[in-house]
Design a protein that fits this description.
With 561 residues, the protein is of the alpha/beta class. The chain folds into two domains: 2-280, 3-Layer(aba) Sandwich (Rossmann fold); 303-553, Rossmann fold (3-Layer(aba) Sandwich). It is built from 21 helices and 17 strands. The chain has helices spanning 42-48, 76-90, 102-110, 131-140, 143-152, 154-159, 164-177, 198-211, 241-245, 265-268, 270-280, 312-323, 335-343, 357-370, 394-422, 444-464, 483-486, 495-505, 509-522, 530-542, 544-553; strands spanning 2-6, 13-20, 27-31, 53-58, 95-100, 120-126, 228-233, 254-259, 303-307, 327-332, 348-351, 376-379, 385-386, 426-431, 469-476, 488-489, 526-529. Strands 1-2-4-3-5-6-7-8 form an eight-stranded mixed sheet, sandwiched between helices. The protein has a seven-stranded parallel sheet with strand order 11-10-9-12-14-15-17, sandwiched between helices. A two-stranded parallel ribbon has the order 13-16. β7 (228-233), α9 and β8 form a beta-alpha-beta unit. α14 packs parallel to α15.
């Protein structure tokens, strides 16, 4: 630690500056929030110091830094002057700035100050906008979104009260330091955080809320020309997603990334936070997440993997995602068909047999190496064998279960693991069928495989929800695809009748694709598609006996695919 001076007179302070790593490396400045000290960054700093020159400091009134004699000297003029003093002491022409909570708020203001913003190469904010951007949102945002954010900011009014907050912190600080309370879920006390000086720091820091008011910035310039990375903690109780989404209006180059975490994500998810900071600072900068955000399509810069993309629902789904801005990898057993699909919109083809565990493992590894971890995976590949149970051979059962069930298991297992390790959420779509809940005397293997896919999806949805990964099951009825033409028929020859039935139904796979995109956007668990899909689902819920009666009457129910 080395002390530096910022300002003079009643508003001046002595700041405690901490440096780690080789000073010849790019410099990252980590700015803490309220009521923390530099130590809140300990875990992240340890992961960055081998590649970067890591700089931290205790803000005025916190930790080893002194408090100004003038209790009003906590305004943005003083805070940005402190940051400028830190940059002067570091002696670098440019730094990569990272801020959390009130640390991020003062960094946002620094981006608007001539003479200071030119010294900032990039800025990463952990889930907090600046006061200028907050003021615009409160003024221009939808009323329900504004009211929602006001409800989340309840503590600000409390902190502005006289005396009461100081008394409250006197009691709470002791509970936090002794572990009887936590700052947030998963943030237990450890050496250095909360600091020994917490009670004093919290009382001093109340002036941040009493001196500064977002309303005073309502007419101020909110545009920021520095590249900004927003890391959103999806479980942060203090900031609404609508407020964070509004930042795109003011930041032309904004990378918006998410972690399934609360407010103190640098404590609970230091590995993910450090990786994102390092990427944005330029050493490992990925292309997809960090492109210029001029494209406003709903799936812009989203990586989507679709199996069975060579035809039918898979092809329609791949095209729909691409039309909405996604980068799509089109996987199919038939490479030529995959190339035709990918070639229609500039996607990436890949030949893979989803039933082959080794091929799927190689495919998942190739996707991660060449394109990154996918954001959405659509397990769609499927085959059908039609005919009575007693006419199904063991080979028929093996083939249907290998593709329809094991193919989905491989896709979920391999890609879900990648999504969990990345820690930024994602979505898995498993295409099942109305046969998942409507039994059929003519499709025993197919129905069993689709029912298993639905059950697997329900299990996965429960398990992966804690990682921010959604799982949706899509259950179409009759769809006009080539699955009947490509199916295996055993027993009575009804191929032509099945093909004709699907053609006459005239329900295009593009409509199923629209349901899939909607399911991802809304994180829907189960989506019955078209009239027979919805009817079958309702019937299975109201009267399982009726579904069994239907199975006895219908010799050849429709199959999807």
């Amino acid at each position: 630690m080395r002390p530096i001076t910022s300002g003079d007179g009643k508003s001046g302070v002595r700041l405690a500056l901490f440096e780690e790593g080789d000073a010849a490396n790019p410099t990252i400045v980590l700015v803490h929030g309220y009521p923390d000290t530099h130590a809140v960054w300990d875990e992240v700093a340890a992961l960055l110091r081998d590649r970067f020159h890591v700089v931290r400091y205790d803000v005025r009134g916190a930790g080893a830094s002194t408090a100004p004699r003038d209790r009003r000297a906590y305004g943005f003029d003083e805070l940005t002057a402190d940051l400028a003093a830190v940059l002067d002491a570091v002696g670098k022409p440019e730094v990569h700035l990272v801020g959390h909570d009130w640390g991020a708020i003062q960094c946002w203001e620094a981006l608007a100050r001539p003479g200071l913003r030119e010294r900032i190469a990039t800025f990463t904010t952990l889930g907090v906008p600046g006061y200028r951007q907050i003021a615009r949102f409160m003024s221009d945002g939808k009323r329900r979104h504004v009211l929602g954010q006001r409800a989340r900011s309840w503590y600000i009014g409390l902190f502005r009260l006289p005396v009461l907050p100081e008394l409250g912190w006197r009691v709470l600080a002791e509970r936090l330091r002794t572990g009887r309370s936590e700052l947030g879920p998963g943030v237990p006390p450890r050496l250095g955080h909360p600091a020994e000086t917490l009670a004093r720091d919290a009382r001093n820091g109340l002036q941040l809320y009493r001196v500064n008011d977002a309303g005073q910035w309502r007419d101020a310039e909110a545009r920021v020309d520095v590249p900004v990375q927003l890391i959103e903690g999806t479980r942060d109780p203090y900031v609404s997603p609508h407020l964070l989404a509004s930042l795109g209006r003011w930041v032309p180059e904004l990378a918006h990334r998410k972690i399934v975490a609360g407010h103190w994500m640098q404590r609970t998810h230091p590995g993910q936070v450090a990786r994102m900071i390092a990427e944005f600072a330029g050493r490992d900068r990925p292309t997809r997440e960090l492109r210029r955000a001029a494209d406003r399509r709903p799936f812009r810069h989203t990586l989507v993997v679709v199996t069975g993309a060579g035809s039918g629902i898979g092809r329609a789904t791949a095209r729909a995602f691409a039309a909405h801005g996604a980068e799509v990898i089109c996987a199919d057993l038939d490479l030529k068909a995959a190339e035709e699909t990918a070639g229609s919109f500039g996607g990436v083809p890949y030949e893979v047999d989803v039933a082959d565990a080794g091929q799927m493992a190689a495919f998942a590894e190739w996707v991660a190496d060449q394109h990154g971890v996918p954001d959405v995976v659509v397990n769609n590949a499927g085959v059908a064998v039609s005919g009575p149970f007693l006419e199904h051979s063991l080979g028929d059962w093996q083939r249907v279960l290998d593709v329809n069930l094991w193919g989905v298991i491989h896709g979920c297992r391999l890609f879900a693991r990648q999504m969990v390790e990345r820690g930024e959420g994602g979505h898995i779509v498993n295409v099942a069928s109305v046969a998942a809940f409507l039994p059929s005397r003519s499709l025993p293997a197919y129905s069993v495989s689709k029912a298993a896919v639905k059950s697997l999806s329900d299990c996965l949805r429960a398990e992966l929800a804690g990682h921010g990964i959604g799982v949706s099951t899509i259950c179409p009825g009759f769809v006009s695809t080539a699955i009947a033409r490509n199916a295996t028929f055993v027993g009575p020859d009804v191929r032509e009748a099945a093909i004709t039935a699907l053609e006459r139904r005239a329900y295009p796979p593009e409509r199923v694709a629209a349901h899939i995109l909607r399911a991802v956007h809304r994180n829907q668990a189960l989506v019955p598609v078209n009239a027979e899909g919805r009817l079958g689902y309702v019937l299975s819920r109201l009267s399982p006996a009726a579904t069994r009666a239907v199975a006895r009457v219908l010799r050849n129910p429709a199959i999807d695919g």
